Automatic annotation (TrEMBL):
Keywords: Cell membrane, Membrane, Transmembrane, Transmembrane helix, Transport. The lineage of its organism: Bacteria, Bacillati, Actinomycetota, Actinomycetes, Kitasatosporales. It comes from Streptomyces griseicoloratus. It is found in: Cell membrane. The keyword Mitochondrion does not apply. This is MFS transporter. PANTHER family: MULTIDRUG RESISTANCE PROTEIN MDTH (PTHR23517:SF2), RESISTANCE PROTEIN MDTM, PUTATIVE-RELATED-RELATED (PTHR23517). The keyword Transmembrane applies. Pfam families: MFS_1. It is a multi-pass membrane protein. GO terms for molecular function: transmembrane transporter activity.
Length: 410
């Protein structure tokens, strides 16, 4: 197992200037958030379908509600963080996540499950944009103080999240040997520790952060064409990334006769991010601007889809048939390493003063809406009966077109 970022690693992220105690706390927060979350949620669909006997459409509906209550309301959490500061918003989110996991563990009826997953999703809509916006703000301050490119801090934040996403399911799988309720209570326990740590360590007031009225922010955001262009490009990336769960499983099953190799491909993606994210970000930060780095990532993602499209007409199966899928995962993950930290690092340059939380939340909400709409189109495309390469070529065109949407930096 790949070890999570240590305190020493966090302190030496730049090689020049150590991270502040607040930044270290926020990066470790992302690690803890994902350990607690992924100890439970990957096993939810099986619990609902087999453990509770829900119909497939109802399982999908419940999972969709969780995503909507989280991604769709990020903009609300970000605005609240601007208005009241990150401490009360993060603490409230932790309390709601604890309550949601405990409720889910004891939920025996559909209405109870729906209430629990809505609470779990809304909790993340509170604390995630608050933490992400403050990490971005602190990363800019760290850059201006001579620490190095802000993308290094955002890359470390990504690595911490990916390490949590890697450790969480392993913890959940062990706990499922008892039952699903035990996994839920363990996830709640992680957030109890996070709540206690933040109640003690998170400052009441963070220097340089002023509270801003919520009113009027949305109007300014909707007039910010450069930010909306970034949202569209980031949404195209997320739509492409979502194909790990839509197009890739279908291709793996065609090539291997089952979806068993998917677990190995997902592990490959996680391992690449944890081990290569910081070196890739360091290399890009020394050579590429934010715009060029994000454009390069989108081109790599497009190349991954093109690779499968070129191999698909041959109809290879077995190991040879899985090789293009593995190449797709590698190129998609490399593109993710360039796009994800840069998109977050770019937001402070585009946001109005005092509204970084709102803009950080809007980046997730707007791009999440693009994924929601685009996924239905993608599903229809895969079932359309077109030539084998056609859907993958169309998917390749999406990130390539998005690269042209990226705003020019002043």
């Amino acid at each position: 197992m790949t070890a999570p970022p240590s305190a020493g690693c966090l302190a030496k992220a730049s090689g020049r200037r150590p991270l502040s105690p607040l930044l270290r706390l926020l990066v470790l927060t992302q690690l803890a958030f994902n350990i607690g979350f992924f100890a439970v949620l990957p096993f939810l669909s099986e619990h609902l379908g087999q453990g509770m006997g829900m119909a497939g459409w109802l399982v999908g509906f419940v999972l969709g509600l969780r995503t909507f209550s989280q991604q769709g309301l990020f903009v609300v959490g970000g605005a609240l963080a601007d208005r009241y500061g990150i401490r009360p918003v993060v603490l409230a989110g932790c309390v709601l996540r604890i309550a949601g996991f405990v409720w889910l563990g004891y939920a025996g009826r559909t209405w109870a499950v729906v209430g629990a997953v809505l609470l779990i999703g809304f909790a993340a809509a509170l604390f995630s944009p608050a933490v992400e916006s403050e990490v971005a703000r602190q990363a800019v301050a760290w850059e201006e103080a001579g620490g190095g490119p802000r993308t290094r801090v955002l890359a470390l934040f990504t690595v911490a999240g990916q390490a949590g996403a890697f450790i969480g399911p392993l913890l959940g799988a062990l706990l499922l040997a008892v039952d699903f309720r035990t996994a839920c209570l363990a996830g709640a326990g992680v957030f109890v520790l996070v709540l206690a740590g933040h109640a003690r360590l998170l400052p009441q007031h963070i220097p340089g952060r002023a509270r801003t009225r919520v009113k009027g922010g949305a109007r300014l955001l909707l007039r910010n064409r450069r930010f909306l262009a970034l949202c569209c490009a980031y949404g195209a990336y997320l739509l492409a990334y979502n194909q790990l769960y839509l197009a890739l499983p279908a291709e793996v099953e065609r090539a291997a006769g089952s979806q068993a190799p998917l677990a190995w491909l997902f592990a490959l993606s996680s391992l690449l991010v944890v081990t290569a994210q910081l070196p890739v970000t360091r290399w890009a930060g020394e050579r590429l601007s934010l715009r060029r780095s994000m454009a390069a990532g989108l081109v790599l993602i497009g190349a991954g889809f093109t690779l499968v499209a070129l191999a698909r007409p041959a109809g290879w199966t077995g190991g040879a048939g899985l090789a293009p899928a593995a190449g797709f995962v590698v190129l998609l993950t490399l593109g993710q390493m360039l796009v994800a930290p840069v998109a977050r690092a770019w937001v402070p340059d585009l946001a109005e003063d005092g509204r970084l939380g709102l803009y950080t939340g809007a980046l997730s909400s707007v791009s999440g809406l693009i994924v929601l709409l685009g996924s239905s189109v993608t599903g229809s495309l895969l079932d359309s009966g077109l030539p084998p390469a056609a859907p993958w070529l169309v998917l390749a065109a999406v990130p390539l077109a998005a690269a042209g949407l990226l705003p020019r930096r002043h």
